[in-house]
Amino acid sequence: MPAHAVNKINMAELNHNYRGRMIISELEDAVGIQNVRLLDVDKLPHSVDYYWIPRMWVDRGKKPVYPDCVVYPETTEQVSKVMRIASHYRIPVTPWGGGSGSQGGALPVEGGIVVDLKRMNKVLELNTKANTITAQAGIIQQHLEWEINDKGYSTMHLPASIGCATLGGYLAHRGTGVLSTKYGKIEDMIVSMEVVLPNGDIINTLPVPRNAAGPDLNQFFVGAEGTLGIITTATVKVFEHPECRMFNAFLFKNMHDSLEAGRLIMNARLQPTVIRMYDEPETIHQIERVFGTKLEKGSFLVFGFDGEKEIVDYQMKKAVEICEATAIQNLGSKFGEQWWKNKYKFYFPPYCLDLPQAYGTMDTVATYDKIENIYWKMKTTCEQFPGTRFIAHFSHWYDWGCMMYDRFIVDPAFVPEDPDEAIRLYQQIWTECIRVCLDNGGVINEHHGVGLKLGYMMQEQYGPAFQVLSALKKALDPYNIMNPGKMGF
Ligand SMILES: Cc1cc2nc3c(=O)[nH]c(=O)nc-3n(C[C@H](O)[C@H](O)[C@H](O)COP(=O)(O)OP(=O)(O)OC[C@H]3O[C@@H](n4cnc5c(N)ncnc54)[C@H](O)[C@@H]3O)c2cc1C
Is 53 exposed, middle or buried (0-12, 13-18, 19+ CB in 10 A)? Predict the structure, then answer.
């Protein structure tokens, strides 16, 4: 338990005791009687997100940790009132967006109040002069896109979970979309935001994201995973639809060659919208399956450009030249376009990983001089576990390095039926693989976040620097009521 944790209210009281009923009536006063839910039918869906452990747990017939109640505020003022009540009684509060997070970040592991933000789904302003849009944080990202697509705009934040995750969830997790290589991650897209602090105060960050008025408050709350406050409104960038968007795909002899080609495209500062490269096992596992085409053995790489046609033609020509120097086959634009059309498909049934397999996406990021070594070391470590495979694609590329979407998959025959044993195996794989990543200069995560899953590695990741984060947390949330048990707090 964190050092600053203090006695919190025994939440079982909420349902069974007159004092609890008094607190419930305060919450009902804050958000409306119909928006405070105490039934199991409301609690169960707020106790399992996309993290493998709770899914396996429920699959094995075990009860997950329920919140004591779920509240659905509609305005920032209502969120503030809920936080004031929680702060007064020291009740744990867990923000809930779409529940699509893979790290257990939204799980109410200490019970208490889940604040489900999905009623806070209004678009407040599209500003076509400043190229920004302001919306409540509970809006599903796809709805935000639909609101502006017909008007000629896009946020260019297009993650595979676009239909089931919220703007606030992406901000809380430092999410990223398929076009990140040109348009940035969500932390590059944020302009300003409104946050409700653990004590209920409502604050706003500065109106523009580039300034020298001290450290950047946006970046303080982005990635905090609801441990420092609840993001209620956000202003993010919008972009006009590009005149054209083009893709091309190549096959390389091996992952080393395709990784190098991707690096050279970035080095040439050609500004691709996306580069996605698949190692040899994932080229077979995903590309061949989704495309329904047999390829020669090798590593698949696809890239795209968008903007004015003349510029895109030039960028494309240069990138193709780079790849043709070492690729074994130019698969052409048809394969590239096919990949773009299917871009979300990889993450949904029947192509995604699912129970009864055990699986995890390790989402590793490192500089170009280190990433390939980390890939091989993590693969070796992972595949020492019986019945376990390691596959990866490389999704988000920067000037200095790239992100590896590396996954382990344990064959169902090797996943213990006993849920406690299954957790033991699962934790062992994570711990050993992540240690290898850290020991070789990687960072534990690029966009899925830390959550419950990786909280125990934060001290190892940061070393003495973790005290800075802990001190900030303690200053803002002295009773550790905001999403306790996450991010190592
Ligand atoms: C099929 C699938 C594909 C995916 N693809 C991608 C992808 O391409 N890119 C990507 O980045 N992620 C992806 N993810 C992961 C997931 O969608 C992201 O982590 C997303 O950011 C979670 O958003 P959510 O609204 O579902 O948040 P939740 O899962 O509800 O919550 C996540 C965390 O954010 C906190 N939180 C939620 N809302 C707020 C708020 N308003 N203020 C403060 N804290 C808050 C929660 O407490 C929790 O800690 C994918 C997931 C799935 C299931």
Answer: buried
